[in-house]
Design goal:
Structural class: alpha/beta
Helix content: 40-55%
Distance between the termini: 22 Å
Strand order of the largest sheet: 2-7-1-8-9
Strand content: 15-25%
Number of helices: 8
Bound molecules: guanosine-5'-monophosphate
Radius of gyration: 18 Å
């Protein structure tokens, strides 16, 4: 039987660069699968429907929510965001480590359902750098940037509820840190409960 994959959640202030790190991770490491979220926010100029997000109207999103098609959902800075359930369950059953890049309210909802999911909080090297990254990506107006900075301050309060902190100084180091976390988590005895049974079976037949 295939070993079930792990579920890893990556949260962190808007502008930290979570998206870039996660993209690099799934491109380089085949053991990872990235969940594409549903949202009611408008696409940015470089975003493709079905690749970066599924862009839906509020009506469609609410229908998905009511039909229990979402693993979690939350409102963030005036828009809905949610994780389609089917893909996550399918990929984990196939042994893939599924990555969700979601904000803190959704992360804590998932932790209640999947007790052994891994919560990672990604932060930029400094607050100054966060402001710089948010401004330089030029995808939001001044008011939205300020709203996201305020939300970042609120989100930092949730750090103690996360299992790991990764500082996104360079993409390469952040990707390596995530791979290290997955390696260590995979060695936990709680994730290898069949090892005793397997060993006993093998020792009697050799
Ligand atoms: P953005 O608008 O910058 O793409 O995302 C805003 C925030 O929503 C980010 O913190 C991002 O991680 C989060 N987010 C993206 N998808 C989901 C989701 O499916 N569920 C939740 N709860 N948050 C999400």
């Amino acid at each position: 039987m295939k070993k079930q994959g792990m579920l890893m959640i990556i949260s962190g202030p808007s502008g930290t660069g979570k998206g870039t790190v996660v993209k690099e991770l799934v491109e380089k490491q085949q053991q990872f699968a990235l969940s594409v979220s549903a949202t009611t926010r408008s696409p940015r100029h470089n975003e493709i429907d079905g690749v970066h997000y599924y862009f839906y109207t509020r009506e469609v999103f609410e229908k998905m929510k009511n039909e229990n098609q979402l693993l979690e959902w939350a409102e963030f800075c005036g828009n809905y965001y949610g994780t389609p359930k089917e893909y996550v369950e399918q990929q984990m059953a196939e042994g893939k480590n599924v990555i969700l890049e979601i904000e803190v309210q959704g992360a804590l909802q998932i932790k209640k359902i999947y007790k052994d999911c891994i919560l990672v909080f990604m932060i930029p090297p400094s607050a100054k750098e966060l402001k710089k990254r948010l401004t330089e990506r030029a995808t939001e107006d001044e008011q939205t940037i300020q709203r996201r900075i305020n939300r970042a301050i609120e989100e930092m309060e949730f750090v103690p509820q996360y299992d790991y902190i990764v500082i996104n100084d360079t993409v390469c180091c952040a990707v390596n840190a995530i791979c290290d976390i997955v390696k260590v988590e995979g060695m936990k005895s709680s994730r290898n409960i069949n090892i005793k049974k397997q060993f006993k079976g093998e020792i009697t037949s050799c």
